[in-house]
Amino acid sequence: RQQGIEAPPRGCLIGYRDGEELLNEYEELGHSRAALKRKLDSVRREREALDARLQDTPWRGPTREALRKLFRSLPPGVMVHSTREGWLIYAGRGADSTVRVLAGRRLRALQGYAEIDYLPSRELRVDLPPALFEAIGRDALEEVPEADWQALTAAQATLELPNLREWAERHRERIRETVTTSLERLAQEEQATRAQQDALEARIERHVCDPCPVRKQHRANLREAGRLLEEQAQTARELERRAQQQEERAQHTLRGIVSVLHHFGYLQRGEPTEKTGLLANVFDTNGLIICEMIAAGRVDELNPPDLAEVFSWFAYDRDRQFGNRHVLPTHLVHLRRDLGEIEGKVLRAERKAGYALSEGYNLYFFGTMRAWCNGVTLARVLERVELSEGDLVLTFNKAVDLMRQVREMLLTVDRDSPLVENLAKAMRLARRGIIEQSYAVGFGIAPPPPDATDEDVEALIAAGEELPL
């Protein structure tokens, strides 16, 4: 990232000593030019708004939709006002349904609804002679006969039609009195702004950067460097934010673990208890469940094959279903039920504390390790369970390592526990054939001598050596 920031050339590309300062100054002049243009546009819009008010009328003109509905039911002879020709007489609709009006003696179609800007009361109307009305309906009339026009003119003169021109002029005069000061102010502002523009344009033309042929490249270099610096800063902020989040999550999880350890008696007022040593050397996600199982003495009476079987339940860590035709004896079925209660207590306590570490055992994995420790071949074991050989070998190895951890823990905190000897026997039963080969390769352990006895094992443990089972 730092290499990217240094990549764009720095300084003036044609040799000026203060090239970057000169370019920044030129850029500021450009910003000032844009600001003056915006100010001038604002003055112009305000002045145009005031000018529009001076052309306003004291009445609100009818909308197109209102006129469209009105002319459906408006009786002929009603007076309407045109923006261009003044008062007209609505003459009805022609044969093609277009709106017709009398403008002087001439009959014509209405050019559009926008032509009408004022509608008086329906009472302000003249009566069209029947013959004239019939001729209009048949489109047989282009000009009103002189006699009819004289009669219509006389009737129109009796109507009290408002003088819209005078009305509008009085209205606009009142507006003019209120906006004159504003118009004068805007004119002065526009003049002053244009003078500032002219002076600024002269400064820009005299600036050394204005005719520079590589000014755009120099500007692009600065922007690219700025962009990279900002990106670097954003990345640093994001890393800091994530680190803070991780720290908060870690603190939250740590508080939750401490709370759970207090709940199950592994800590008391922040200090270790007699049970603390059980958990200290068991490195497994289900360590708390296993230690609670051991502390409750649930596996003390099991024989080595059954003991290995129990630890294999916690070694299979895939959350999936599969077929399994192995069968457990009654006492192990009851033990699984008891372990389910322990597991439920641990999971509920962790959930209440706001974290999830323990997983519990898979309900579908059972019977395989017991069969293996009782001498059944791996092929026969696999015939009764829908697992691959690799999955089963990996699980058996993990079970052996889990038993090793628990045995080493017991040698530290409770050497007299019956599990010490039973775990050693269980591991010897499990570590045979392909399991022994893969375990020795995976953990770098030499295979045991064929004549190794329990006393040999204990001597190796007392010497602090790795248990070569």
Descriptive overview:
The chain is mostly helical. It has 17 helices and seven strands. It has helices spanning 2-6, 19-54, 64-73, 130-137, 146-157, 164-206, 215-263, 276-280, 287-295, 304-315, 330-353, 368-373, 378-383, 389-413, 418-430, 433-443, 454-462, and strands spanning 79-82, 86-93, 99-103, 106-109, 116-118, 267-268, 271-272. A hairpin with a 2-residue loop joins strand 6 (267-268) and strand 7 (271-272). The relative contact order is 0.07.
Based on the model shown, name its key terms.
469 residues, mainly alpha, Sec63 N-terminal domain-like fold, 5-stranded antiparallel sheet, two-stranded antiparallel ribbon, 60% helix, disordered C terminus
Order of helices and strands, N to C?
Answer: HHHEEEEEHHHHEEHHHHHHHHHH
CATH class of the domain at 271-462: Mainly Alpha
Give the terminus-to-terminus CA distance: 53 Å
From the spread of the alpha carbons, the general shape counts as elongated
Given the helix and strand composition, which structural class is it? Answer: mainly alpha
Radius of gyration equals 50 Å
| Strand order, largest beta sheet | 4-3-2-1-5
**Number of strand segments:** 7
Describe the structure concisely for a colleague:
By secondary structure, the chain is mostly helical.
Task: Please give the structural blueprint.
Elements (H helix, E strand, L loop, with lengths): L1 H5 L12 H36 L9 H10 L5 E4 L3 E8 L5 E5 L2 E4 L6 E3 L11 H8 L8 H12 L6 H43 L8 H49 L3 E2 L2 E2 L3 H5 L6 H9 L8 H12 L14 H24 L14 H6 L4 H6 L5 H25 L4 H13 L2 H11 L10 H9 L7
Antiparallel strand pairs: 1-2, 1-5, 2-3, 3-4, 6-7
Helix pairs in contact: 2-6, 7-11, 9-11, 10-14, 10-15, 14-15, 14-16
